[in-house]
Amino acid sequence: MSTAIPVLDRIFGGGLPSGSVVYVRADVQAMAEIFLYQFTQARKTYYFSNQRNPKHICRDIQNLVFDTEDITFMDLHSEYHLTPSGDVVNNLGDELMDTRIVEFTEYNLKKLMEKPEEDINIIIDSFSFFMNLNVKPGIFKRLIYNIYETTKQLNCLTFLYGIKGFNKGELETEILNSSDVIFDIELKMGTDRITSYLSIPKIRGKHPMTEMIKFKIENGIKIDTSQNIA
To answer: What is the pTM of this model?
Structure first.
């Protein structure tokens, strides 16, 4: 299935294997959300937003001159952070509310299963949000299971956005183990240059990339084609 990033599609013979859970693990400064935005251009996308208001994400996607018509936002942000009247609430450490937002996410995944569609993406921005909730480990593992089974049954691509340094180690290990594909994105700062790198150390069903490849953000993701990555 296409990623909407032509160089990556070429490397992997047309894209990523259908039915893959893809964990996008990124340095916080790398603006890796641009990968998510570009993935939406490949097909209809259900975009689960929990840390930012969907309208702000939509605006950022449009600022890249990307089409947003085929994006349906699943607004976890308002469900968790706002009252019905729009006031901000502090749910930090509230186990009951944290459990409810997991259940609300699972409910929306179930709705997608009830009316299955062909050729879709699911994006969860961010998955680090869930790793930092005050919920029992079993509830988190259940969420991973439900995401995985939904992805397999819909034969879609599901992208989970994880921010390095913001995750509980043992929980991130769970998702690294479960994921079919891992995108690892890092930023290296030199004395006069900042360089962004992508590696894909895990991809079930295909050969993983053995090199780190450079990319830049320029109206989307631009892979450095001067490298021998064919």
So the answer is: 0.95
